[in-house]
Design a protein that fits this description.
Radius of gyration of chain A: 38 Å
CATH class of the largest domain in chain B: Mainly Alpha
Largest sheet of chain A: none
Number of strands of chain B: 0
Radius of gyration of chain B: 18 Å
Structural class of chain A: mainly alpha
Number of domains of chain B: 2
Largest interface: A-B, 28 and 38 residues
Distance between the termini of chain A: 124 Å
Oligomer: heterodimer
Number of helices of chain A: 4
């Protein structure tokens, strides 16, 4: 055998219909057994995790802003509380 | 013939469409794997694994980049190469590195056994390039694209594989 014959022999790789059928039966069994039809990691990531992460981010931003607003609100409240106004104006209600 | 409708149904997970894809591509994939492994049992196992992997990864298929057959072929080449590389006997001590032992081994073999032995001993990277170029007559650019290597590397691997095989055949006929 020489190199050319070797290549010619390689070209004649055997395939038969029964092998094709047998492998397909095995493949379809595996797919059904593994339930490959259910979501793969990529699908799970795309369909659930990305929206979940986005939703979590929205909540975090919302609560962060809410906290900030609450802080400002409390600060304003503390400035404008009656005691503070009295203190700032040096007003003593008992003067009356 | 794999139509656009079959491709779309396959991507959406339809098992019937997948069966049609299988029937349309089986011969190409099976022959490639057989040429790479030269063992029927390994070929059947790897072909099974390749199609299951393709079904699992169907959402990654981009029809604007390549045809479904090309995509499957690419999975098959890389899957088989990885399987062969993971087998220790192919890793370092291929006949490329151990010519004397290989010559002694193949001295008394018939043609078909010789072919199988040579294929088993040949470095998988050289073998993949040789099969795609010499047997399947694919252009260098396509081989480079499939294996994600440069055209220069493809040429070099083909030449190295070819010259080692020729040397071996010459050594055998001298005896």
């Amino acid at each position: 055998m020489d190199y050319r014959k070797f290549i010619r022999m390689l070209k004649k790789a055997p395939v038969d219909a029964s092998t094709e059928k047998r492998i397909w039966n095995k493949i379809s069994r595996t797919i059904q057994k593994n339930n490959v039809g259910i979501l793969s990691f990529t699908d799970i990531w795309a369909k659930f995790l990305v929206p979940a992460v986005a939703l979590a981010a929205v909540f975090v931003i919302f609560f962060y802003n809410y906290e900030k607003q609450l802080e400002v609100h409390n600060f304003v409240q503390s400035i404008y509380s009656t005691e503070n106004i009295y203190a700032t104006c040096k007003y003593d209600p008992q003067w009356n | 013939m794999i139509t656009k409708e079959i491709t779309d149904s396959f991507v959406s997970g339809d098992l019937k469409a997948f069966e049609m894809v299988y029937k349309g591509t089986f011969k190409t994939i099976y022959q490639l794997v057989y040429r790479m492994t030269s063992n029927r049992q390994d070929t059947e196992d790897l072909t099974h694994d390749i199609y299951v992997r393709a079904y699992e990864k169907r959402s990654l298929y981009r029809k604007e980049k390549a045809g479904l057959t090309t995509w499957l072929y690419r999975i098959a080449v890389n899957f088989t190469l990885n399987a062969l590389r993971s087998r220790k006997r192919w890793a370092k001590e291929s006949f490329i590195d151990n010519m004397g032992a290989a010559e002694a081994l193949i001295e008394n073999l018939g043609d078909s056994e010789l072919m199988e032995e040579l294929l088993k001993l040949l470095n998988p990277d050289f073998k993949a390039c040789l099969i795609m170029r010499e047997v399947e007559e694919r252009p260098y650019g396509e081989i480079a694209d499939m294996l994600k290597i440069s055209i220069g590397t493809v040429r070099s691997r083909i030449n190295r594989g070819r010259s080692q095989l020729k040397k071996l055949f010459k050594a055998r006929t001298r005896r």
